[in-house]
């Protein structure tokens, strides 16, 4: 700064004054040389003297111009350096201002936001209170829910009606028990058929029986078994042409008891519900049942009153009741017949063929029964068998 001040105040002004003085001196030297060349007798000498003054004046002026130019250039350099320093300072100030503005902007943005406190924890946290496992409860499967669903059975019933002959044992069936196919009754043995409704036959003159009991003729071409003499599920009932020996189960379709239409029979003595009498059932016609005794049945007693119905014991006719084998248990709940073949899956189960007789000694809640078959005791599914014994309530 001092150097610049010295140049501005001393050296440059002195150089300018030196140039002005040289200008004035050159004017006087020029006038002198002109007058001297005119008045001098020796022109050559006057010319040489003029050349000498001219050279000296030119050198003096050139030196002074050079000194002044150097001082001016030095002044410009100093001022350029000062401008660079000033520019650097301005840039620094500009950056400082920008930083301050960014800080202010961040502060204003931070005011609009909320702090989020993040706690470092495990992503998988075990529950504080362990849930108690729910105990699995097996519900028995009702395999008869979908019996009326589909087109096959309904179409066959609509096509053949109720007069279709009994099915033989050559029918193919799927694996039980998704939908139980009808078990083919064996002709001549009186086995229980299933899913065969009572058929309506044409009027045939019935045999002479008491007023409160009627039988119907056997079906043509069908298998035969003794009819049951009481109904557990149709009490009370009226004797309006219905057979008194109708079975208690709808699926006992192999029974020989039918419902005659417009049969001229004597009217019953009483009108209203009449209880089934505890009398043995009438035998089938002797020409169609050669396997049973052909002796005439004992005469039925007179009809009992309705009040004695609860005390009456329902008699039944068991085609398998020729006598329990020696291996049969003394105490059993029910006597059943197998309607499907079953092969055991575990050691504690039974294996049996269709038509095998099993004595049930225990019924479990899950649908499995425990029974005895051919001196072997084990478990078997309850939907593979069908009861052949019916007792009173």
Sum up the overall morphology in one term: rod-shaped
Radius of gyration: 67 Å
Order of strands, widest sheet: 4-3-2-1-5
Q: What ranges have pLDDT less than 50 throughout 5 or more consecutive residues?
A: 164-174, 179-206, 209-279, 285-298, 300-319
Q: Give the biggest beta sheet.
A: 5 strands, antiparallel
**Strand tally:** 5
SSE blueprint:
Blueprint: H1 2-39, H2 43-112, H3 152-160, E1 334-338, E2 357-363, E3 368-373, E4 376-381, E5 385-387
Antiparallel strand pairs: 1-2, 1-5, 2-3, 3-4
Which keywords apply here?
SH3 domain binding, cytoskeleton, about 400 residues, Abl-interactor_HHR_dom, alpha+beta, five-stranded antiparallel β-sheet, rod-shaped, 3 helices, SH3 domain, SH3 type barrels, signaling adaptor activity
Molecular structure report:
With about 400 residues, this protein is α+β, with helices and mostly antiparallel strands. Helix content is about 30%, strand content about 5%. It has helices at about 1-40, 45-110, 150-160; strands at about 335-340, 355-365, 370-375, 375-380, 385. A five-stranded antiparallel sheet has the order 4-3-2-1-5, with no helix packed on it. Strand 3 (about 370-375) and strand 4 form a beta hairpin. Mean pLDDT is about 70; it is low at about 165-175, about 180-205, about 210-280, about 285-300 and about 300-320. GO terms for molecular function: SH3 domain binding; signaling adaptor activity. Pfam families: Abi_HHR, SH3_1. Its main location: other.
